[in-house]
Design goal:
By secondary structure, the protein is of the alpha/beta class. Helix content is about 40%, strand content about 15%.
């Protein structure tokens, strides 16, 4: 193993730079060259790259985003694109490719493996934490903290006006950020994809909970956390609907991409460093089509195909206690 490459693909996540740093430092310690492809899989196709030396990764562990930049590459689904990428990798004498990204990036890695004989190793870099086989993903912990900081500020103004706020967090089709944000912020309700009956938001249930809570507490602020893409038209449309149905002002707050930015928190820096270093060791040992993750504090190698087929449920106990805390309809005391 003489030369490895790394790229960051899909949505950026705080901690990607920490991972690039760990990969670069570990590889050079093992006398390997490191090539960084820019703009994800687009860099593979366009041969857009840069050598990475220890001096290039000084003081990046605390930076959000990714020094290699990121992008989505719709054209990479074709056989022609994968064949071109494979030729470029071979012509550059790349022995192993490390891909930092989420589910879409992992699919690209599997697709490339059909046309390239080098070793491919993936690392989970996504704020959504929706990748099975690892307890946490790079960027997830920072996204929660960023969301909580914003929600705490919304709570202040909600208290002042005794308003209802509907706060939309990221997560795509997974409620991990939503669940932890709801618990950490003391939100009164949470609307998550995993908890919906028949996949639809129950307006009657939401309204009933608001009315019972306000009846028991009197005038008070009220926070509802909702995962993106859960309601047609998003949080703004749902807030308008609730306002019309209840006759009480409900304001939407869409946190959006601020959850992707910012300096990574300690847990993301440590996780990214651990997984990045181990990925280089796995490449040296000839591992192929595995994801490097963490389970119960230990680094694990998960067959890449398993990350698609295994389920990753929300923590049932966290769901239970969040529900119990605010189930005033069944427990009016």
């Amino acid at each position: 193993m003489k030369r490895i490459a790394v790229l960051t693909s899909g949505g950026d996540a705080p901690g990607m730079n920490a991972c690039i740093r760990a990969i670069t430092l570990t590889a050079h310690r093992m006398q390997m060259e490191v090539i960084g492809f820019r703009h994800g899989y687009n860099g593979l196709l366009k041969r857009e790259y840069q050598p990475l030396h220890p001096g290039d990764v000084v003081d990046i562990i605390q930076r959000g985003g990714t020094i290699l930049r990121s992008a989505r590459c719709p054209e990479f689904v074709t056989a022609e694109s994968a064949e071109k990428a494979a030729r470029n990798l071979d012509n550059m004498h790349i022995d192993a490719l490390l891909v930092i990204g989420g589910n879409g990036s992992f699919k690209g890695a599997e697709h490339l493996a059909n046309y390239w004989n080098g070793n491919i190793i993936t690392l989970p870099g996504t704020i959504d934490n929706d990748i099975a086989g690892t307890d946490g993903t790079i960027g997830y912990y920072t996204a929660i903290d960023t969301a909580l900081e914003a929600i705490d500020k919304v709570r202040d103004t909600a208290d002042a006006f005794e308003r209802i706020f509907l706060i939309e967090v990221m997560g795509r089709h997974a409620g991990f950020i939503g669940l932890n944000s709801a618990i950490g912020s003391g939100a009164e309700q949470m609307l998550l994809p995993e908890l919906l009956e028949d996949g639809e938001v129950n307006l009657e249930q939401i309204i009933r909970h608001v009315k019972v809570t306000r009846k028991k507490r009197g005038g008070c602020s009220y926070i509802i956390i909702i995962t993106e893409h859960l309601y047609p038209g998003g949080a703004s449309a749902l807030a308008d609907k609730l306002t019309a149905e209840m006759g009480v002002d409900c304001r939407p707050v869409i946190l959006g991409h601020i959850q992707r930015g910012g300096s990574p928190v300690s847990m993301d820096r440590v996780l990214a460093t651990k997984l990045g270093a181990y990925a280089v060791e796995a490449a040296r040992d000839g591992k192929h089509l595995v994801m490097i993750g963490e389970q119960n504090g230990h680094v694990v190698e998960v067959p890449l195909a398993d990350t698609r087929t295994m389920e990753k449920p929300l923590d049932p106990y966290l769901v239970k206690i969040q529900t119990d805390f605010f189930d005033l309809v069944k427990n009016p005391s």
